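Chapter summary example.
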Amino acid sequence: MGGFIAEDPSFSFRDSSIVSDRPGVAQSSVSSIILARSPPIVQWNQDCVAVAAADCYLFELLSAGLVPEPARLFVEPSYYEEWLPSRRKLYWDARAVSGTERVDGGTRPSALVRAVNEKGVCAERWCPYDGLPEENPLADHDDAGRMSMDQAGRIELFECADFDAVIETLASGHRVLYASAVYESMQHVDADEFYVPSGPRLGLHMWQLVGFERDGTVIRMKNQWPGWGGERQEAFATRSSLEAAMLTALAFRRTSVYSEQT
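The structure predicted for these 262 residues follows.
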């Protein structure tokens, strides 16, 4: 099972020009929340950051009411590809801003946000999720470089300083990109089961937190590994286990459409 971020002793998600220390969400006394679901999504191997972010992007469009007939996303692949940001282009652009586009070795969230805000986003149908990750995805799709999704707009990531901020972010209606070390037990999680970290360490990985229950003591996860967590790719973990393992947690937000920017 792949999908890891390269383990580098100097690795950090921190980029002060992009990531803020403020989650920017209000306190909430909600005991449980399950955010709106989006269709299952899959990744190649090392592109977990780009794929999880693409799904968060689509969720922001859904929550803003910008996707007409959202139920069609689940049954019509062409409609899904019309609204999902291209995973392949996101992954390429995020590595390109770091000068490592031809190395299929993962990317950092700060690089991905920089790529989105500098290069825009095109729909999956213009830059399909095929070919080799280290090959320029726009080489045979000249139009894709110009086909930005205006509604997708600018995004910001706010670093959640602690797990209280994670809960506040979820309660405010935004998903959280969550990264930590993962262990062998992560490979064997069925729908609505609990992920309990155990076994050999596999590497670093990013997925999404998409809700919570029982006053925030149980967290709902979505992971883009094929077959993980059943048809919805969802399972659970205790807050305590995620809190102990957290490398970083980032609130993902769409803040404006491109046409509103100066």
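To summarize the output: The radius of gyration is 17 Å.
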